[in-house]
Amino acid sequence: MQNQELFNERLNRIKSAVALEKTDRVPVLILNDMFAAEHMNVKMSDYVSDVKLLSKTMIDSAIDLGVDAVHLPYFDPNLLSTVWLSKVKLPGVELQEDDLWQIQEEELMSVEDYDVIINKGWNYFCNDFMMNRLNNLMGKVGPTLEFAPQAYQNCIAAGIVPVSGGFLTSPIEMFCGARSMSKFMRDLFKIPDKVQAAFDVAMIDIIENAKGLFANKPLGVWVGGWRAASQFISPKLWQRFVWPYMKKLAEVTLEARVIPILHLDSDWERDLSYFKELPKGKCIFYPDSSTNIFKIKEVLGDHMCINGDVPPALLTLGTEDDVYNYSMKLIREIGPTGFILGQGCDIPPNAKVENVKAMVAAATGK
Questions:
Q1: What string of H, E and C letters represents the secondary structure of the chain?
Q2: Computed from CA positions of residues 247, 253, 259, 264, in that sequence, does the dihedral angle turn out positive or negative?
Q3: Distance separating alpha carbons of residues 351 and 343, to the nearest angstrom
Q4: Does residue 359 contact residue 350 with C-beta atoms inside 8 Å?
Q5: Domain boundaries, the chain
Q6: Over the stretch 198-211, which tens digit does the pLDDT of each residue have?
Q7: 89, 92, 91: which is closest to 81 by C-alpha?
Q8: Where are the transmembrane segments (predicted)?
Q9: What is the pLDDT of residues 42-78, one digit of tens each?
């Protein structure tokens, strides 16, 4: 089968799963930005310093695994700073050459910065923050963003579906990363009205900036959350500072005819029912294996496609049979419709290749 035909077949499989329609088999969608270097025997310091090498390595890894799709066909650890507003340590720079990148969270945003955002807008604050407190972040990620369109074309040419065209996140994640978690959580109790005012101003620019992602007409866009998870925030604060903003970003994504990929790290079980407020058969719920996937199925299984959720620990420490059997359990009990098989969050860098292939084989039979 030619790669274009293979791509079309895989794309239709993904779209049908999202729409809660029957497919010939459960599709497989992975995130392999951490795993690909080890899989393809590329030194991590070389991998993160050359986006062309990195993207080729990710695509070659996906081809070897035989998956239908990848969340992203390129990566740059510095992109994490654009959503966490925290510094990143890199292998071969601050870390050993084969170490994984690390987020360096510290208090870079002050209480006074809430007023700057309220009075001058999010883009004014964020541009200054990225230049002066994150050491010219946009200059660092510029080459990666310039190469991104080519990465998508290379992925499509290989017959692999690139599902996500980038990521959006609500103000709580960026503010929390910039303030540091302990200081930000204190702000929610000490100055909640000011925090909300800054959130509301920030959303104006966040939504406007999102149009740049949508202009490229991606299949989907991540609408992510991690510190905003139910396990960290009381219901009263969650209903005020998390859900309205996340829901709005998902709705804006849908208005652009793009699939919101709700990438939700940590445990969101308490508030799963809220996601029924989003349209049926239009979104992907993508957990990290902390939220009970069987509870997700119980609450949202007839409403929203689920992507997951083979745990990273199982891919690393389990046997091929362990992984295969768990993957088959997911296919039977979460699927076969409205389900896309994959790892919880990200394939870890030290996952066993044979284990990842066992996960894929559960769906493909190969």
A1: CCHHHHHHHHHHHHHHHHCCCCCCCCCEEECCCCCHHHHCCCCHHHHHHCHHHHHHHHHHHHHHHCCCEECCCCCCCCHHHHHHCCEEECECCCECCCCCCEEECCCCCCCHHHHHHHHHCHHHHHHHHHHHCCCCHHHHHHHHHHHHHHHHHHHHHCCCEECEEEEEECHHHHHHHHHCHHHHHHHHHHCHHHHHHHHHHHHHHHHHHHHHHHCCCCCEEEEEECCCCCCCCCHHHHHHHCHHHHHHHHHHHHHCCCEEEEEECCCCHHHHHHHHHCCCCCCEEEECCCCCHHHHHHHHCCCCEEEEEECHHHHHHCCHHHHHHHHHHHHHHCCCCCEEEEECCCCCCCCCHHHHHHHHHHHHCC
A2: negative
A3: 11
A4: no
A5: 3-364
A6: 999 999 999 999 99
A7: 89
A8: none
A9: 999 999 999 999 999 999 999 999 999 999 999 999 9
Q: Which fold has domain 3-364?
A: TIM Barrel (3.20.20)
Q: What pTM did the predictor assign?
A: 0.97
pLDDT digits (tens, 9 = 90+) for 288-343: 999 999 999 999 999 999 999 999 999 999 999 999 999 999 999 999 999 999 99
Q: Tell me phi and psi for residue 20, to 5 degrees.
A: 65, 30
Residues in the chain: 366
